[in-house]
Please model this.
Amino acid sequence: MNLVADFIEANLDVLVRRFAEAARGLESTQGLKPSEVISTLPEYLHVVAAICRHGATPERLERRERLEEAHINLRLRVGATQEDATDEYALLGRLIPQLWEDAQPERKPSASGMHCLFQQLEEAMDHVVVLFSGYSLEDRQREKRFLRQLDALAPRALAPGADLQGRVKPMVELIVRAMEATGAELFLVDAGGRRMVPVAHTAHLVPPPGRPVDAQGPSFLGRVARSEEPLALTQARGLEAFERDGLEAGGWSTLLGLRLWPHGDLMGVLCVGFAEARPVPPQTKRFLETLVEYLSGILDRALLMGQLHEVNARLEASETRYRLASQAAADTVWDWNLRTREVTWSGETRRLLGFAPEEMGPLVDWWVARIHPEDRERVETGIHAAIQGTQARWQDEYRFINRRGEAIRVLDTAVILRDATGRGLRVVGALQDVTSRWEVEHGHERLLSEARTARLRADTELSQLHSLLRQAPVALAILRGSAHVVALANDRVCQLWGRPMEQVLGRPVLEALPEVEGQGIREMLDGVLATGMPYVGQEVHVRLARAASGALEDAYFNLVYQPLHVAEVGIEGILVVASEVTEAVQARQRAEGLATTLQASEERLRLALDAADMGSWDIELATGRGTWDARFRAMLGLPAQGEVLLDEAMQFVFEEDRRLVEHAMAEAARPGGSGEYASEFRVRPPRGGQPVRWISGRGHVHFAPDGRPVRFVGTGLDITERKLAEEAARQRAEFEQYLVGIVSHDLRNPLSAITLGTSSLLKREELSEHATKAVLRIQNSAERAVRMIRDLLDFTQARMGGGLPVQCQELELGALVRQVVEEVRMTAPERDLQLSLPQAGLRGCWDPDRVTQLLINLLGNALKYSPEDTPVALRLKEVPGAVVLEVHNGGAPIAPGLLPRIFQPMQRGVPGMDAATRSVGLGLYIVRTIVHAHGGTIDVTSTRVAGTTFTVRLPHVDA
Model:
C-alpha cells in the first residue's frame, strides 16, 4: 500500500488542481472562493496517504474525521445537499485512478492499496450521510417507483424444482436498471441450505450451469452469504479463482453483493456488477438493501405458494381415495342438530334399516318412535343425560324396528360436539348391525373359535406389517386397544413426533406424547375406535416438544386415522398416516388473512346498504380506480356511467372540505392504524339552482400482509336534512339566549326600581294601614319576580353552558347554615324551623353564595309543601370525606309518578298551588345543578308516614 501513499503525495498538487477545475462544474460550488472549493483537501489527502502507508491508528482516524467534518460543515453552510458532498468524494475517487493510467506498471498501486484508498473515500461518504441525515425526497420517490414495478413482476407461485430463470430474471433486470449497474446474478440455496446454485443471470437466456457455491466457503459469494451488510469489491478483475467461485461475468470491475434473508434464514445471494472501478456510496448500498429485502419477500411468498399448491394437489388425491373408501363402509351415519331437532341420515340406511335416507323422518322423534318399546325409555334417557352432562361420547346397544317390522340389534355410537361453554350443539353417530355378534355372545361357540383364529391371524399379519411398513416412504403408525398403544411406528412418524423408536413402541399415545393431553387427540381416537369411521384431518394444529430443549412448538399435519377391522385386514386397531404441512399452512394463513378481512368488510357494507338508503364505493388505492354504485354517484354528482378515478371524484367535493376528507383518508391508510375512515363534507349540486348537499362518509382501508394499504371500501349517507335540523336547533338556542338577555336586562332594572320604591314608601309614617298592606304586597310580588328571573338565568346558564360555575373558598359550613336558617325564620316567623348542628365545626371548600341559594330553595320548598302547623327540620352532619344536609317536612307525600322527575325543570310537587306561592318550577333543578357543580349527590324520599326528606351529600373538595 506504500505505492498508493507515494503516488498521492507525489501528485498532490496535480490532484488538488484537477479537483478544483472539475468541482467548478458542480452546482454546489458556484459562487465559492477557490480556497472554499479546495477546503481541507490537501490535509485530507496527506492523512489518507499516511493511513494507507502506516495503518489506521486512532489518532490518524480522528484527524481524518475532523478534516471531513470541517469540509462537510462548510458545504452545509453554503447550502449544498448530501448528494453534492458525496459527489465530491466520488469525484476524488475517479480523479486518482485517472492519474495512474499513464504511470509505469511498476508504479501503479496494487489491488490492496486501491482497496485502502477507496475504503477511506467510502467512509467519508458515510460521514456525509450521517451529517446530512438520510435519503433525499427524490431517492424515496425513486425507491417507491421501483418497488411498485417489482410488485407488478412478482410471480404468484413458483413450483418446487421448476426452472426459475424465466420467472425471476425480469425482476433481477429491474434491480440492475434501478442500481444503474452492468448486470447481476442471483443464487438460491438448495434444500440442504448450504449450497447456492445460480437461478438467474442478466447476460444469459439460461443461467450458466456452473458448479454450486459453498455458502460457508471463502469466495466472495460465500462472504456475502455470511454478512449482514452489503459487501463491495472495488477491484474484481484481479481476484483469485477461489474468490470468483460461482461468478460468470468476468468484465465487472466492481461487485456489490447482499444476501436474501427472509425470516432469519439464508435464501440466497444477489450480486450486482459495475463495469468501472469505483467506490460505492452508502446510499447505493442502502437502496440495494431495500430492493433485495423486497425481492426476498416476493420469492419467499411465491415459493411457499408453489409448495402449497403441490401439497393441496396431493391432499386432494388422498381425500378422493378416502371418500371412496368411506362410501364403501357398511354403517348408517346420522347427524342430529340439537337446536332444530333435525336429523340427517346417510350411508347404508337402505341395507341396514330398509329405508332410503329421504324416507326417514327429518326430526329426532322418528328415530325415537322406531326404537323397540322395551328399550326406548332407557335409550332416550341415556342420550339426553349424556348431552346435558359433560361427556364427549355416548354409546348404547338396543333393538330397532326396520321397514319390515323386524327388531334388529344395533350398536349406536355418537360423538357430542359442544360450544365453548360446554353446551351441546350437535350429535354425530353411526349405527352398526350387531345382531350376529349378539348371537355369538349368546351361545355360538363356533363363531367364538373363529374370532380367536382371526385374532391369531391378526397378530401374525401385524408382525409381517411391522417389517414391511417400517420401510414405507410415508409416516405410518398402528395404534391398538382402548389406550391406543403404539404397536407399530416407522422412522418417519418418529421424526415428526421428535421421539426415538424405543420411546414410542409399546406405549399408549398419551404416554409417548404427554404434551398433546388436552388437545383433543384422545377424544378423536376414541371416536374413530367407537364409530369405526375414518377421520381425515386437513391442517390439524398440534403443539409438540420436538426440539432438544423440550420447548413446545406449533406444527400442522395432514392426518388420516383409518380404523382397521379383523374381518377386512386381519387386525383390529387404527392406522395413522401423517405428513407435515407447517410451512404451507402458515403461507396460506397469511394469504387468507387478507381475504377474511375483505370478506368481513364486504359483509358489513352489505348489511349497512340493506338497512339504509346509502351509496357505496370500492377504490383500488394503488391505481385510484373506483367502483361507485348508482346511489353514491347521484349523491356526489358523478356521471351515471363510465370510469371515475378517485382524484376526479374529489373535484366534486367543496374545496373548503376537500382537505379534511383527504386527511381522514390518509389517517385511515396509515400503516399500523385502525384503517377506519369517517368524515362529513359538502358536495356541489349536480344541477344549478339546487341546494348544497351534505354527505356522511364511513369506510375501512384493507391492508396487504406486508402492511401496504390496497383497498378502500365505504358508504355514503345523505345527511342534508340532519344538518338543516342542527342549524335550526342552533338558531333556536341563539334565540333563547336572546330572550334570556331581554329578561336579565330589561326586566331586572324596572323590578329593582319597584323594590327600592316600596322600601322608600314603607319608611313613611303617614301611610295608612290599608296603603301599607298594598305596598307590602307590591314588594313581595317584586321580590318573587326577582327570584323567578334569577332562577331563569341560572337555568339558562346550566343548560347552555354545561353547568353552573362555583367559586369555592374555605368556610365553616355550620355558621353559614345557622345564618341562612335565621334569615328564613325572619321571613316566616309563624313557622317552626328546627336546626341540628354537630358540636365541632365543619370546615371545607365550598361556594358560600351557591350553598346559601341551595339551602333557601330547599327550605322554601319544604315550607311551601307542608302544613303550617308542622315543623320543618334541617340537620347537618359529617361522614367520611363529605358532609350531609337533610331537609325534612311532613304533609302529603310526593306522588310516586313525580318522584323520578322531581329534579327536572318545570316540575312542581303539587298541582294547583295558590297563585301567590307559585314559581316557574326551577328551584329543585337549580339545587341539583349546584350539588353536581360541587361534585356531590342529592336524593329524596317521600312517604305518608315518614314525610319528605331531601338529602344532599357534599364532598370536602373536588368541586
Residues 589-718 form a domain with the Beta-Lactamase fold (CATH 3.30.450.20). The mean pLDDT is 81.
